[in-house]
Amino acid sequence: MKYLVIGAGGQLGKQWVSELESLDVEFTALNRKALDISDRSAIRKVLEQEKPQVLVNCAAYTKVDQAEDEPEKAELINGVAPGVIADICAQKNIKLIHYSTDYVFRGSEEDEQKYPTGYPEDAPTDPVNEYGKSKLMGESAIVNSGADHLIIRVSWLCGEFGNNFVKTMLRLGSERDELSVVNDQVGCPAFTKPVVNNTLQLIRSSKQGIFHLRSAGRITWFDLASAIFKEKYINVSLNAVSSEAFPSKAKRPNFSLLGIEKAKAVEGVIINDWKSDLSEMLNNLSE
Fold first, then answer.
1. What is the pLDDT of residues 45-64, one digit of tens each?
2. Residues noted as catalytic
3. Number of continuous H segments (helices) and E segments (strands) in the chain
């Protein structure tokens, strides 16, 4: 089976490359410079040249606040382009793996009470910012394309590659004696290594449709920061604050917990506790 990874320069794309390199599989990985996913003809040309059985789309517009000022660009990359890719995949009988986000949900207090263990895959979507709207647009386009697809929603993505919350905390922890971290946003991280490995297991199991992937647990950003500093023996005074302490252009959902019962029911999918996955990531960063 041949894989084609697009968006291979980001933290999830680089993790895919790392995992595929460890397996005896044929694959091609293209970053943004090698393939502009907003270019319909370029996408078709690459797929005709590479002839993959599985296309993994890790390309995305991820600047949440900036998307409020340039929604058209976010829609083009996150909404229109995945639909174009899906249409070509449907024509060429290629399985499409696409990553989406917890931001397709509204994250309200009412939803938190209704879904205490996390949003199920079929919960009503209602994004509260332009980024979430653009990602939902992409989901809908893929579903409507008729392509054999897996849409994987992840939350609080963290990994060895690229920029993310864990790396930011490690940097700030080395620079400052005191930090304030938001303590009123509830969710749980999705670490890139288990996300990729569990996605591979879903592919092997011939699964289709929407799945949620993350580590096990229910925490806040403050909880995650506390665990990072404890694990690395970094002495920082942490202050728990509300989201109002960090005003942002884009509204963030206060409740971002994704339900993972559907994925857990698939044989071979391994969901570890978030502290275990965090430890593995920190160990890998230290090597």
1. 999 999 999 999 999 999 99
2. 131
3. 11, 12
